[in-house]
Specification:
about 850 residues; alpha/beta; GMP Synthetase, Chain A, domain 3; seven-stranded mixed sheet; disordered N terminus; binds 5'-O-[(S)-ethoxy(hydroxy)phosphoryl]adenosine; ATP-binding; Ac_CoA_lig; AMP binding
């Protein structure tokens, strides 16, 4: 492995539903939530249109208002007028290419295959196969039998108008493709970890041809108490094909390690005890702290000793429902230290959602805080936890211990409700613990954490990650996708309640010994310059956020950004949804002063780490494209029959083989794991996303192809919202779809049928929204409620969501054939009621 020893991989890693029938207006339904159908159909995943679903958005983002000034036409204008669009990072495109971006759709540009000054194809093996790009015609699948019925998914239709492109044909969301190339300047490339396409190609080739050698060399740079087993030269085993038996993935089995030891002790032992591991910035400016690797290790040790003292052992679950205090990542690391499985629940989920998760994983202990301020809003976390624990108890599971961090900045201890015998103040039990804590050496395949994603049936899916492969993969992806250099300060704005906060706020950066910024607040409090103020305060070098935040800040104009220097910034990152070119360009030009490459990282809770991502310096970027697969990742774009497409094409994004941080199962439900992710396309992991690959081999994510709505970069199952709506006694039936939202990416649009005889009113609308807030959380609140005396259904009673999506998008002239509906008149009625 010559490239591996050339230093590219050396550095930081090697140094150290209700069912009662009420009168329903309209025909029978089987696919929206209805009182008569008992909320949700079936027990398994919603077929055929639901392959994945998960959980959702941040309260702050979802609270943001809807107007936006962002528009793709702004870019076209500025590009055209300046003749050539070239930043310091080095954009290259002909003016004609830019002004030729006709037919703007969605929030930005439509793509077009106009002249690119230079075509690159890092995956040279990927020769275009004539004809395979035409798997979808006019946004519909080509004729042919399908192993899974994807017809209804595809009938979602596309708003992609350019005939020469079918980029969005597999997904509802429109890809906004732009062929402008941005290339890092020479200085950047010279110093980059992956400094050329050639280097990437060489390493990528090794990683897929001999993954065992490739990943073992990287894994060797961590501490293993005992080395993993090697069988016939292999360090991993996998079966990704349901036809060949149970789906199974193992990496580094037999190896004994501990991710907490690798993230903390290793650096302390290497003499870095006094280096800052985490800057904590509170919601209120002026409230901050910094902890060194030594401090962090002490804190983690104390929490782990306490957990042991109350009987938490290796393999036990611990639920963490905390705001973004230092104590949140500390709690995660403390669990990892003793081999307990942490299950962090985003502290924006309602009591019902928390109770559901508690009942499922049965934690010995719940760790929480009494409250938090988010912007100007106080959130009483303790009452939510109390409510959840009460519900869990009614459902048959009692949590013995609830540890409450007294967050004095947000609320007073004496105002906190208390259950004697169960509740205990964090501050009363943790600081008195010893700062020495034995490490529990665990097998690489022992579980590290559970993270629930909302299921399309309403039952959340507990995505389970194991230890060794996750450790190796998150550390390596962090390092390369951000071109991390030792000593740099990195800020990820994600909450630890989501996967990004696990992999790229906690584990990935700390494993690399990076200094991370942990921010408790929201980007717009006290003003829209807060992020850049923080960047300057801590000299942040790498800044990682979501398109929804970028769009929200972009709406406030350039001034709040330019007020701050941002000189320290070197690399920017994006995650959660496709970033539209207008936001990309603003992020690049205004935030990054046309100096910083943007790593648009595509990945999922299930993948644990980046799957398709730029490696800054390695190759030119195209705004809106996540570019190329990470080492070891073998993406496949397949048609509706599961046939792999080659060259330029559009279809369903799958992965052909395991990568070290593949999720191992869904907690307690391996059959659902197989059915949801591996059964739709035999032999592949199915991501649930649509994807286009352009002629240069760049990957363009086009959004979900299932009934999952991506709100502010977080996933919400439409079925979950429907189920919450029909919990309202006056709601007879509900069908929920996503629609374009200028800040959130997608918003939630709910069609609601009321119980016979009930009058529609604004009060009822508010009550329905409140119902969803209390059942799921504020972030899942519908943006629009559309009264629906009837829903468009086929004669067999299936709701035609394609039509609802068109109505939601005001594309009334594109409704298509409605003659197969049981009652075509329903559509007209819905159109009439659109703005009522
Ligand atoms: C979407 C978040 C386009 C996608 C890490 C995926 C993206 C889902 C991107 C996973 C990106 C995430 N470009 N789409 N860079 N990143 N997505 O599990 O639809 O919360 O399936 O993980 O977000 O969301 P999850």
């Amino acid at each position: 492995m010559t490239t591996l020893s050339c230093g590219v991989l050396s550095g930081p890693i090697c140094c150290p539903a209700p069912s009662s029938a009420r009168g329903v207006r309209g025909a029978a339904g089987s696919s929206g939530a209805s009182k008569r159908s008992g909320g949700r159909p079936g027990n398994g995943e919603r077929e055929p249109s639901s392959f994945l679903s998960a959980s959702s958005a941040s309260a702050s983002a979802s609270d943001s208002s809807t107007s936006s000034s962002s528009s793709g036409s702004d870019i076209t204008a500025s590009c055209s007028s300046s003749g050539v669009f070239r930043g310091r990072f080095g954009a290259r495109a002909s003016p004609s290419a830019l002004s030729g971006a006709a037919g703007r759709v969605g929030r930005g540009w439509t793509g077009a295959t106009f002249g690119i000054s230079r075509a690159i194809c890092p995956l040279r093996c990927m020769a275009p196969t004539p004809g395979t790009g035409a798997a979808f015609t006019n946004g519909r699948p080509a004729a042919g039998s399908s192993q899974v019925d994807l017809t209804s998914v595809l009938s979602v239709d596309t708003r992609y108008k350019t005939e020469t492109h079918a980029a969005a044909s597999a997904g509802e969301q429109v890809v906004e493709e732009t062929q402008v190339l941005f290339e890092a300047n020479e200085e950047f490339r010279k110093n980059a970890l992956v400094s050329s396409t050639e280097k990437y190609e060489e390493m990528y080739k090794q990683s897929v041809e001999d993954p065992d050698t490739f990943w073992s060399e990287i894994a060797s740079q961590f501490h293993w108490e005992k080395k993993w087993d090697v069988t016939d030269g292999k360090v991993h085993t996998e079966n990704f094909d349901v036809r060949k038996g149970p789906i199974k993935v193992e990496w580094f089995k037999g190896g004994k390690t501990n991710i907490c030891y690798n993230a903390l002790d290793r650096h302390v032992e290497a003499g870095r005890a006094n280096d800052v591991a985490m800057f904590w910035e509170g919601n209120e400016p002026g409230y901050d702290s910094s902890v060194t690797f030594g401090n962090l290790l002490d804190l983690v040790s104390q929490v782990s000793n306490y957990l042991r003292s109350v009987g938490v052992k290796k393999g036990d679950a611990v639920v963490i429902y905390m705001p973004m205090l230092v104590e949140l990542p500390v709690a995660m690391l403390a669990c990892a230290r003793i081999g307990a499985i942490h299950s962090v629940v985003f502290a924006g989920f309602s009591a019902d959602s928390l109770a559901q998760r508690i009942s499922d994983c049965k934690p010995k202990v719940v760790l929480t805080a009494n409250g938090v301020m988010r912007g100007t809003k106080f959130i009483n976390l303790k009452t939510i936890v109390d409510d959840a624990l009460k519900q869990a108890k009614q459902e048959g599971y009692t949590v013995e211990t609830s540890v409450v961090f007294a967050n004095e900045v947000a609320t007073k201890k004496e105002e906190t409700a208390w259950v004697e015998g169960r509740d205990i103040w964090w501050q009363d039990v943790i600081p008195s613990q010893s700062t020495k804590s034995e490490v529990e050496w665990v097998d690489a395949e022992d579980p590290l954490f559970l993270l629930y994603t909302s299921g399309s049936t309403g039952k959340p899916k507990g995505v389970l990650h194991s230890t060794g492969g996750y450790m190796v993969y998150t550390a390596t992806t962090f390092k390369h996708a951000f071109d991390y250099r030792p000593g740099e300060v990195y800020w990820c704005t994600a909450d630890c309640g989501w996967i990004t906060g696990h992999s790229y706020l906690t584990y990935g950066p700390l494993l690399n010994g990076a200094t991370v910024v942990n921010f408790e607040g929201v980007p717009t409090y006290p003003d829209a310059g807060r992020c850049w103020e923080i960047v300057d305060k801590y000299n942040v070098n790498i800044f990682y956020t979501a398109p929804t935040a970028i769009r929200a800040l972009m709406r406030e104009g350039d001034k709040p950004v330019k007020k701050h220097l941002r000189k320290s910034l070197r690399v920017l990152g994006s995650v959660g949804e496709p970033i539209n070119p207008a936001a990309w360009k603003w992020y690049y030009e205004v935030v990054g002063d046309s100096r910083c490459p943007i790593s648009d990282t595509w990945w999922q809770t299930e993948t644990g780490g980046f799957m398709i991502t730029p490696m800054p310096g390695g190759w030119p970027l195209k705004p809106g494209s996540a570019t190329f697969p990470f080492f070891g990742v073998q993406p496949a774009i397949v048609d509706e029959n599961g046939k792999e497409l080659h060259g330029e094409c559009s279809g369903y994004l799958c992965v052909k083989a395991s990568w070290p941080s593949t999720f191992r199962t869904l907690f307690g439900d391996h059959p659902r794991y197989e059915t949801t992710y591996f059964a739709p396309f035999k032999g592949f992991y199915f991501s649930g996303d649509g994807c286009h690959r352009d002629k240069d081999g760049y990957y363009w994510l086009t959004g979900r192809v299932d009934d999952v709505i991506n709100v502010s970069g977080h996933r919400i199952g439409s079925a979950e919202v429907e189920s919450a709506l029909v919990h309202h006694p006056l709601c007879a039936e509900a069908a929920v779809v996503g629609y374009d939202h200028e800040v959130k990416g997608q918003g939630i649009y709910a069609f609601v049928t009321l119980v016979e005889g009930v009058e529609y009113s604004d009060k009822l609308r508010k009550d329905l929204i409140a119902k969803v807030r209390s059942q799921i959380g504020p972030f899942a609140a519908p943006d629009i409620i559309h009264w629906a005396p009837g829903l468009p259904k086929t004669r067999s009673g299936k709701i035609m969501r394609r039509i609802l999506r068109k109505i939601a998008a005001s594309q009334i002239d594109e409704l298509g054939d409605v003659s197969t509906l049981a009652d075509p008149g329903v559509v007209e009625q819905l159109i009439e009621l659109r703005d009522k």
